[in-house]
Specification:
CATH architecture: 2-Layer Sandwich
Pfam family, one: NIPSNAP
Shape: globular
Radius of gyration: 15 Å
Organism: Methylobacterium komagatae
Protein name: NIPSNAP family protein
CATH topology: Alpha-Beta Plaits
Number of domains: 1
CATH class: Alpha Beta
Largest sheet: 4 strands, antiparallel
Strand content: 25-35%
Number of helices: 3
Distance between the termini: 6 Å
Mean pLDDT: 96
Length: about 110
């Protein structure tokens, strides 16, 4: 198992738009492509409170590549994403990391 941590840093005032897009659009596509989430978090205290951090669970890097690429190539997804950004961009930058659990982790 591999865990992907993704951090979306939003343009100023755009975090509510990102949360709404995940809530009403993105999660349906995650379900469609079998993308399993562990959790979504906003920052209460830290360097950037306009960020959304979330974790995805994958069987392997090959599993991630197949599912993520299919999701990203979905024409309905790209159209809906573009519609949510027609007035102005939502995300300023994205960081992602792939994490492997230790032998003493409760999540393995």
């Amino acid at each position: 198992m591999i865990v992907e941590m993704r951090v979306y840093y939003c343009a100023p005032t755009r975090l509510p738009a990102l949360l709404d897009r995940f809530r009403t659009i993105t999660m349906g596509f995650f379900e469609k492509y079998g993308i399993e989430q562990i959790g979504f978090f906003t920052t209460l205290v830290g360097p950037d409170n306009h960020a959304l951090t979330y974790f995805l669970k994958w069987d392997s890097l090959a599993d991630r590549e197949a599912k993520w690429n299919a999701f990203q190539a979905d024409p309905e997804w790209t159209a809906k994403r573009a519609e949510t950004e027609k007035d102005k961009p939502i995300v300023a930058r994205i960081e992602n990391s792939f994490l492997a659990p230790t032998d003493f982790s409760t999540l393995r």
